[in-house]
Amino acid sequence: MTIINRLRNYLLDGGMLYLYGAFIAGYFLLPMAAGHRRLYYFLVLPASCLLAPELLAFLRGNRLAHLVLLYAGYMLASLAWSSGLTAAGALEVLLHGVSVLSFVALSGYLWVRYPVRIGRLQRWTLWLAAAAATVSIVIWYAGHPFPASRLEPLGVMHDPNEGGSVYGLCFIYALYCLLGAQERRERVLCAALAAVLLALVLFTQSRTALMAVCAGLLVLAGWRALGLIALAGVASWALLASNAMLWKERVLTFSYRPGIWQRVIEDATEHPWFGRGYLADTAVPAYGKVFNHAHDSYLATVRDGGLVGLALLLAMLGLAALWAWRLRRDYGQKLYLALLVYGATCISMDFDRLLVQPKEIWLFFWLPVALVMASWSKYQQRPAHAGGQFPQGDRQAPG
Q1: Residues 165/184, Cβ–Cβ less than 8 Å
Q2: pLDDT-based confidence at 221, cuts 50/70/90?
Q3: Residues whose CB is less than 8 angstroms from the CB of residue 223 and which lie 6 or more positions away in sequence, other chains included
Q4: Extended beta strands in the chain, E state
Q5: Could you tell me the pLDDT band of residue 146, with boundaries at 50, 70 and 90?
Q6: Which of 85, 283, 315, 327 is most buried as measured by Cβ atoms within 10 A of its Cβ?
Q7: CA gyration radius for the chain?
Q8: Coil, strand or helix: which one is 168?
Q9: Is residue 344 within 8 Å of 358, Cβ to Cβ?
């Protein structure tokens, strides 16, 4: 047996889960983003290449996977008409695109092949996220004014908006576990985890994460979420009110977004159908300042890929939303639609390109897409006698 075959057998026997789990844990444990990226590039990505036959078999026949590939392929093809195209720039963008696609395929494939183990990984990640949130809160406010200062999470996710978006996603999952908990001990535990995660989101004062949390809560809990949304809103404004200068800064900087969006739209009208290409400059001059990105991934897609690129993105999200809604309607699985709406809301308030190196957006945007892709695959493959039963590997409380 060759070394390649031995490695493949090890990965298929569960070794891939360990590498994937280490990468997910790295979001909360590793101190620097550079080391986290290397973990993916030098371990997870090569391992996923060894499993290419299995990943391609998983993607084959999945319409959502086809739309993801079509969107990514088109956006990468836009390199051809980017101004200032260089070999180094193109290779970097291609690496990012391939990495994103491998992450989506790998996430979906592992969910389908190892549902019980993935369920455990989800619960361990929830514990890890809550622990990392607690440490970040304690350490940050040990050296900064409480509660007025804007918390920056420790480690890889030090940006308040991006980090807050990931912890907000974890909060949505914690609340999902809380709603499904049967025993009092489980409910108390899930409520404690959810409270810590929501506290971190509030302390980051990320309006992007808070808006996404509100959208996800409405999908997950319906009218029952209104009270929690109101409480979170009051708490977030109270944090701002504790510091008059911070209040003024946050209100003013929010007003920058309309001007940024207007300028991006004006620039996009110069190349409306196919965009300026994926190497276009992302800087946006507005209000006498220069902002480094579009603060809206939908508009960024129009800038880079034109209306064609936006149509492909909306088609991808539209089909994912349709499948997630059917999972909710037919099987009572609200989590997938909540996570998808959460990610779609995040990228409407901030961020820029979607095909990027390993970053937080992989978790709060691409992971929900992969989970919908995988869950629908299992739905289609269910036995005829299964009726309304849906695999419940992810529903258990994190005890």
Answers
A1: no
A2: confident
A3: none
A4: 284-286, 289-291
A5: confident
A6: 327
A7: 21
A8: helix
A9: no
Q: Is 84 left (phi over 0), alpha (psi -120 to 50) or beta?
A: left
Q: 34-54: b or e for each residue (b if 16 or more CB lie within 10 Å)?
A: eebbebbeeebbebbebbeeb
Mean pLDDT of the chain: 89
CB 299 within 8 A of CB 314: no
Taken as a whole, the chain contains a residue count of: 399
pLDDT score of 382 more than 60 = no
Of the two residues 370 and 243, the one the predictor is more confident about is 370
Distance separating alpha carbons of residues 176 and 339, to the nearest angstrom:
10
Q: Please report, to the nearest 10 degrees, the dihedral formed by the alpha carbons of residues 72, 337, 329, 108 taken in order.
A: 50
Long-range (24+ apart) CB contacts under 8 A made by 21-28 are 21/121, 21/124, 23/358, 24/121, 24/125, 24/363, 25/124, 25/125, 25/128, 26/156, 27/155, 27/156, 27/157, 27/166, 27/360, 27/363, 28/125, 28/128, 28/129, 28/131, 28/132, 28/155, 28/156, 28/157
Q: Which of 99, 92, 110, 105 is nearest to 19 (CA)?
A: 110
Residue 289 DSSP class? E
CA atoms within 13 A on the CB side of 217: 21
pLDDT digit string, tens, across residues 235-252: 666 665 666 565 555 555
Angstrom distance (rounded) from CA 177 to CA 256: 37
| 313: its two tokens | 């993105």
- How many Cα neighbours within 13 Å face the side chain of 365? 29
At which residue do the structure tokens 């006698």 appear?
Answer: 385
Dig out the tokens for 106 from the structure: 């790998």
Q: How many CA atoms lie within 13 A of 142 on its CB side?
A: 6
CA dihedral 126→127→132→137, nearest 10 degrees, is: 90
Single-letter code of the amino acid located at 342: Y
